[in-house]
Every structure is written in structure tokens, then in C-alpha cells.
Amino acid sequence: MELFEKAKEVASRPEVVALDFAWKDGNVLRDRLEIVCAHVAKLFVSEATKQPITPSQVANESLSDGGGFSTMAPADVALLIFEIVAERNCNSQLWNKRGAGGIDDEINNTVCKFLYGPSTLGGDISQRIRESTFLGAKQKLIKNLEARLF
Q: What is the mean pLDDT of residues 117-145?
């Protein structure tokens, strides 16, 4: 629930609500967070089963303390991706469209920039997010997303 509470803080920010009034509905928030958790779950494997963890496991993980960030903490990664997509998505209808051309593409692009840096075609893992604070990770991911490569 810690992740949901932080996501609720993000969704209640005036600049986020201004982009989409649906954020005020707790069910909409929960549904949108679940979409992000489903994407993030694919990045982590359970040591016990050697299978990807479930979205509910991501949602129930603890966040790093004191503004910290760990790429090995599923909840930290989910909150980062969620916050970036919620703040930067100016098309409220995108959340209602799944698959190609919808929110899944937006989340996948953000995850790729998180993992591989600004160039998702060739990728350069030295440019991936490695910051130890949430704010540092957010700033670096925004920089990766805004990079003009051509």
C-alpha cells in the first residue's frame, strides 16, 4: 500500500490533475498504477521460482527509505515510471487505449529509456539509471527521455 499512497500523492498534484481530471477517482488511480506494475513486474524475477514476479508483488513491495532509490527495488522502479508517465502524458485518452499507440507504448518507451539510456535502438547500458536517490533517478530519466539523438 505504500506504493499506492505515493502514487496518490503524484496523482493529486495540481499539474497532474490539470492534465486529466480522472485522477481524482481512486479506482482510476489504482487501475493506472496496476498497468505500470504489470510492466515493471516483467523486469524482476523471483529467486524462489525463477519466474517474473507478479504485479501485485510489485505493488506490495516497500519503497526505499528517505528519498533513496534502488534499481533492484520493484516498487521504486514502478513509482519512478508511474510518476514520469503521469506527469509527462498530456493525452488523457492514452490511458484508455491499451496496446500499440496507447499507454503500453508510453510505458514501454519510458522503461527502455530507464534501462538503456536515450538510445533505445542500440542502447548503451552505461547511460541507464543508476542514481541512488529518487530525485536523481527522476532527473536522469527525464534527461534520457528528452534527448534528441538525430
A: 87
